[in-house]
Amino acid sequence: MHMAPPLSVLLMLLALIVCAGAAADSIADGARRSRTRFARIFSFGDSLTDTGNALRILGSRATISRPPYGETFFGCPSGRASDGRIMIDFIAEALGVPEPTPYLNGKTAAEFRRGVNFAVGGGTALDPAFFESRGLKLFVPVSLRNQTSWFQNVMRRLGTVHEQRNITATSLFVVGEIGVNDYLIGLIGNRTIGELKTFTPRIIDAIHSAVTDVIAAGARTVLVPGAIPFGCEPELLTIYRGRVDAAGGYDPESGCITWLNDLAELHNRELRRVLAGLRRAHPGTSIVYADLYRAVTDLVVSPARYGFRDRPLVVCCGRGGGAYNFDMAASCGAAGTTACADPSEYVSWDGVHFTEAANRRIACDVLERSLVTAIEFQTGRPALTRP
C-alpha cells in the first residue's frame, strides 16, 4: 500500500516547488497528491493578491489590461499586477489546490467551490466614505467590507450551513495584504505622517472585523499578511525624492525612506497585537501573521543572495531615466514605456508591484515561515525539524 510521506517531508517538498521554481514533475505531483488538509483558498486583499477583479471593474482603463503585463508567464495581461504570477498563485501551486476564482468572474457554485479570490487591485481596508469625507480620491471604490459581503454571498450559494462549514473548515483563508492603499491615498493627497497614523487604528479594526467574519463562517486557518515596507516603493521614492532628508532621511542599508517604513512597522505592530487577541478569543482557529515586510526588505538589502541585480529599487517596466526608472505620468503599460529585458533580475515590476521572480521569493518566505506554523497548529506536532 502506498503511504503518503510524513508532513515534514511534504513541507520541504512544497518549499522546494515554490523556491526552486522548476522542481521535477514527479516531486511536484507527489507533493500535490499528498497535500495538506487544505482543499481550496479564499483570499481577500488588494493588487498584491488580485487575479482579475480590478480588470473586470476597470476594463481597458486599467494599466494592467495592457502589455507588457503578464508577459513572463501568461503571454498576455491576466488581471495580475505583475509580469507573471503573484504570491497567491505560488501558494496555491505549492499546496496543490486550484487557483481561486476571481469573484467577479465566477458564475456557478461549482466554480466557487474551488475557492474564491475577492481581492481587488486598488481596494482599501476602509470604506469609501472615510476617504470622501476627507476630500481624498479613491483608486477603486471597493473596501474590505465589500469583499466580506461578497464572501457571504458565495457562502449562501454553497449549500446548507453544514455543507458551508465543511467547506470553510478545509480551506485556507488569506486576509490581506490590505491597508497599503489606504495610506497611499493619503500620501498622494499630501497628508502628513501625523494624520496617516490616525488611519492605522481604523485600518486594523477593519482587518479585525474581516478575520472575525471568516472565523464566524467556520474558518479554521487564517493567514494574515502584514504591510510591505512603503519606503521601499519606487513610486514613493520618486515622489519624495529631494524632500526626504528633512523628513527623516534614507535607511543607509536599504536606501528606503525611513519614516515611511516606520509607518509600515507601526501598522504591523498593531496588526500583530490584534491577531494575538483573536488567537486568545478563538483558540480552535489557527490565526497566523505573515511578515511581508521582512520578506521584501530581505530582497532589497541582499538582492544578490536571491538572484536579483544590485539595484533592487530600480523599476523593470517604466519610461526610463531618473534614479528609479519611474514616472508618475507614464506608468507601465502607458505609451512610451518599456519593460526590461529580463524581469527575473528585478524586484520591482512597475514601481508599485513586484515581478514574478520577487513574488515567488515572497511566497517562499510565507510558505516556509507562516504556513508551517499553521500546519503545526492543525496537527499538534512540529512540521519541520528545527535546530
Automatic annotation (TrEMBL):
The record's keywords, sorted A to Z, are: Glycoprotein, Hydrolase, Signal
Source organism, top-level taxon: Eukaryota
Q: Which GO terms describe its molecular function?
A: hydrolase activity
Q: Which Pfam families match?
A: Lipase_GDSL
Q: Which positions carry the signal peptide feature in this UniProt record? A: 1-24
Q: Does the keyword Metal-binding apply?
A: no
What protein family does this chain belong to? Belongs to the 'GDSL' lipolytic enzyme family.
Protein name per the record: GDSL esterase/lipase
**Species per Swiss-Prot/TrEMBL record:** Urochloa decumbens
